[in-house]
Amino acid sequence: MKILVTGAFGNVGVSTLEALIAKNKYKITCFDKRTPATMREARRFRKQVKIIWGDLRNPKKVAKAVAGQDVVLHIGAIIPPKANRNIKRTFAINYGGTKNVVDAMLAQQPKPKLIYTSSVACYGDVRHLENHCITTDYPFNPSPGDHYAETKIKAEEYITNSGLEYLIFRLSYIPNTDKMKLTPLMFRMPLDTPIEFTHTKDTGVALANAIEHQELFGKAHNLGGGKRCQMYYKDFLEKMLPLMGVGMLPEEAFSTEPFHCCFYDTTELQRILQFQKHDMNDLLQEMRENTKAARIFAKIFKPIVRPFLLMLSPYYAKNKRLKRRKERRQKKC
Questions:
Q1: Are strands 194-196 and 166-171 parallel, antiparallel or unpaired?
Q2: CB < 8 Å & 24+ apart, contacts of 295-304
Q3: pLDDT, tens digit, for every residue of 168-177?
Q4: Which CATH architecture has domain 2-232+258-288?
Q5: In the chain, what are the domain boundaries?
Q6: What is the pTM of this model?
């Protein structure tokens, strides 16, 4: 069986390649954009897979990669925070690139099967729900200004209307523990947001195992790490920030505006795919091992690191002023 993996040398792509190669029964082609980072990742796979370098926005390159494939694992996409920097580019890659993949598949006979990775972002904010747990029949409700979610919704619509044999996974949050960074995006999520994490290797196993489970096709599925990977954002930060050499930051630094993330019920998907091998303790241990340099840096420059991080927050200064005004009003009363 011939398998194409787009976005093959990103976080989820690499884990999927490893899972596919471990099965030792597929002829694998990788499609990705040539960058220093993807070329570094590609080196260790070059003897086991065929590599086609190209851009999802280029229909001819995409058609070349899709030609003759039995299954296309379409993982390639621009994700946050990069997805927020250039909206036009994000739409061109996430939606336009998916359209190019689907159109190339439709031009073939027989047509390949498609496995597509969508996102939890499509559901938007679910903090108003009692248990914060949703199923795939929950309506799409992207948070205001979440253009990344909009690209995923449009791509799903194009796929489901295409006539292809498809399978959609709406992925939960998949941290890249090798590249943990503190960025302004971390402040956009309210502290009471429910998050379900999925280890990248578990995601790769799920995608690889799904190929031969025909009962999963023709619908969308929520893919998450399971109950052992569910927690609220504040609890996560209280565990993660010390690993970066920083204590918990004040609540005023974080948004209270709508943001996506939720809990999934993945009992049935786990029964079929047997992919949930890691829990939050595994993720935190990997973060600890990969952030040693950051902890040393933070310890040396402790007096400036915390103020610098708070400067990254677009909410801290404003919320702090509002808090002071409220306290003054209360004293007057």
A1: unpaired
A2: 295/243, 295/244, 295/245, 296/245, 297/245, 298/244, 298/245, 298/246, 299/245, 302/245
A3: 999 999 988 8
A4: 3-Layer(aba) Sandwich (3.40)
A5: 2-232+258-288, 302-333
A6: 0.92
